[in-house]
Write the structure tokens for this entry.
Amino acid sequence: MSQELQELRNKIDDADKRLVSLIAERLSLVARVGRVKSRDGVPVYDPAREASMLAKRRAEAEDAGISPDVIEDVLRRIMRESYNSESREDFKCVNPKAGRVVVVGGFGQLGRLFVKLFKASHYEAEALSRRNWDRAEELLHDAGLVIISVPINSTPEVIGQVSKMMPENAVLADITSVKTGPLETMLRCHCGPVVGLHPLFGPDVQNFAKQLIVCCGGRMPEKYSWVIEQMKIWGANIYNVEAAVHDRAMSVIQGLRHFTTFAYGVNLMSERYDVARLVNLSSPVYRLEIMMVGRLFAQDPALYAEIIMSSKQNLEVIRRYADAVQKCLKLIEKGDEQKFIELFLETREYFGEYAQKFMEESRRLLAVSSDSGRRGEEGGAK
């Protein structure tokens, strides 16, 4: 190694050390911001502030001759850590007079997360399930909020049982992935405020910052608005939609997507493909694809069976997908390249501006995947 190269590498090491110090300083400031937000009841996630800050840093990067995308990528990674740091702080309690919060199914992964956050917001929060059902009347008789977090097929029965023991003026909510049925059952069994919620994330998230929660209105929104505001303070994005519209979309977003991932994994297993070899030979795109397949099979099989089989609507969507696969297969069997191209272009038109938008967004994801997938390989360091 030449002396010149060694000296340059030493300077890079010094610059990296300064970067580490600056990041540590930024995280320390973020922790202080988190305490102020907690005191003042300000949401963890401020999209306007984030967008403004990123726009300024991108402009500054361009002036300095640095790729704006590089700076944004670095800042977004740091901000993810910042949100984790902020979310360890206590949160302001929106409704101190709400009464006890009871999460039915609160010993499950997602239920535990809700119990944890309500406790961090200074509510009296309790988990209720089969293991402590002997305390059901004690916990429910003066509850201010009851959240149902049980398997979909058990939800109607549990709603019926719980509604008989809770106060009429308490808020009844559910966090299942299907909304029409549970919402109708809650409205029928409980005469007080009712709301259907669907957290569109898994129980492995560290916090609610930037996470999406669907809200399907039921009854007396003025009585459950504090619940929505509390989740916003945790950092969640709230999306309001009718239950039927939600369920139709979830048949594709969850039912069909999970089924196709499941079927793809089953096919790989049936063909006995060597997963390690597939990964080693994969492009960044395929690495992401097989990563998502493997991710599904690392989780609870009962949960995915429940989601996929949760409604007849899912089954019909999956059947139509199978028909589309057969249609495409026939094109391949016939070698009809012209028809393939026509169908391709027709589908591109359906995606419209989103085709190019998704192309641009995916480049960033692929770059991250490529970096993490090849980490440690020769040629990565300078």
User: Anything to note?
Assistant: The first strand starts at residue 100 and ends at 104.
